[in-house]
Amino acid sequence: MRAHRRILRAALASAGVLAAACSPDSLLEVTDPDIVDPSVLRTPAGADALRLGAVLQLSKATGGNDQLDVNTSNVDTMILLSGLLADEFRSGDTFVQRDETDRRAVQAQNANVDGAYRAIQRARVNAQLAAKAIAEFNPDAEAWHVPQMYWAEAYAEVLLAEYFCGNVPVSEAELDGSIVNSAGLTTQALLERAVAHADTGLSRLGTTTGGEADRVRQALQVTRGRALLNLNRPADAATAVQGVATTASYSFFYNQTAIFNQLWDFVNNQGRYTVSAGEGRNGLNFTAGDARVAVCRGGDATCRAAGVTRSNIFDTANQAVLPFWVQLKFASRDTPFPATSGVEARLIEAEARLRSGGDWLAVLNALRSTQPGLTPLTDPGNAAARVDLLFRERAFWLFGTGHRLGDLRRLVRQYQRGAETVFPTGAYVKGSEYGTDVSFPVPQSEENNQLYQPGSCVTSTA
């Protein structure tokens, strides 16, 4: 309960700050920064402030690192942490929280995971509140405003489903500050909830077109398709993304002074993470020179030209066994983060064709033709190798965008592969052995919710 109230207070506070910014009289008033008067939100400006707050919270819960917020500055998001549990990144840090994640042995009291979990839940609650406020207090809002909030809620739910064990609470919040606690939802139930929210968003958007309406519609379509693919409904997923332009993108934008791109900050700037190069026997080599995942090695000419001043990972004791591989996909602190994209839509269609016996390679090769330096693929000749190739393509196209952990779990859950043939395994580079986690535990702080049963959280089950 206490954790949920902190999330609700943070959601209302971010909206209260934005609402105050809309009022010229606010410069003359002194208010308690810890108290948000609900009446402030019961206006068109207040409702829109909640909407903008939801977008801001989701941008920080995914690719952003807010330098001005003491609660979120230098707190990993699940985008990075999920890549650490999977095979995209290694821990270049000395902090046990990152090392245990890299080693697939995450504790429920892991503070980094707790902060990242709260950030997603905060964005979800804020979107939920904003949709209610817009409908009630801002009936003349743009037609895409409420659908945008349903997208944000659906997207947050997909992330929670992909990253955490199959027992995730999604408590409800009301504008009066009341909370309805939730027992944990299974992965399937959470994904079905995301589909329902995406459906509602699309229904509310209707036939509205142009500008932001088109961007919101395509974001809803891709998120719906992602959820359906996780539900092992590839044909429905492909139908969901029909009409999404390959060039489409719903991105969050950052800047040079306040909110940095987190992948640039934690990898390139701080050396807390390093790009994986064939981790734990099963991991892909993301440093192989593929044009979609540009990298450099700390201290080389390419890194220096990119403005990377570090030569080694932060953990100097292990720099000999963990080279500092720097990602250049997000090459600066203000590089946008693509939450959804048309590329993902095409990859969903390719997987659906593979599952149905269709021409999946044509879809992949059409995508590859848009990227200089890539040559056409050929059929590897057997079913297992085709799945390997498809998931490799997904890994390189979607690198650093928070998809890889969900894909590894799907290989176990949908393609009946053993977890130890998919996830990094064996001897861990900093000592000891890899654990058995294939998902994150719901943080210990959630046990304040009396309806939540932590014993139902099994992190070794995909």
Structural commentary:
With 462 residues, this protein is mainly alpha-helical. It has a domain at 2-205 and 435-456: Serine Threonine Protein Phosphatase 5, Tetratricopeptide repeat (Alpha Horseshoe), CATH 1.25.40. Helix content is 46%, strand content 8%. It has 16 helices and twelve strands. It has helices at residues 2-21, 38-41, 44-62, 78-85, 96-102, 111-137, 145-163, 187-205, 212-230, 234-240, 262-269, 301-305, 342-356, 360-368, 383-397, 404-413; strands spanning 64-66, 89-91, 168-169, 172-173, 179-180, 184-185, 249-252, 259-261, 273-275, 295-297, 325-327, 337-341. The strands form six sheets. The chain has a two-stranded antiparallel sheet with strand order 1-8. Strands 2-9 form a two-stranded antiparallel ribbon. Strands 3-6 form a two-stranded antiparallel sheet. Helix 7 packs parallel to helix 9 (212-230) and helix 9 (212-230) runs parallel beside helix 13 (342-356). The protein is globular. The two termini are 28 Å apart. Residues 441-462 are annotated as: Disordered.
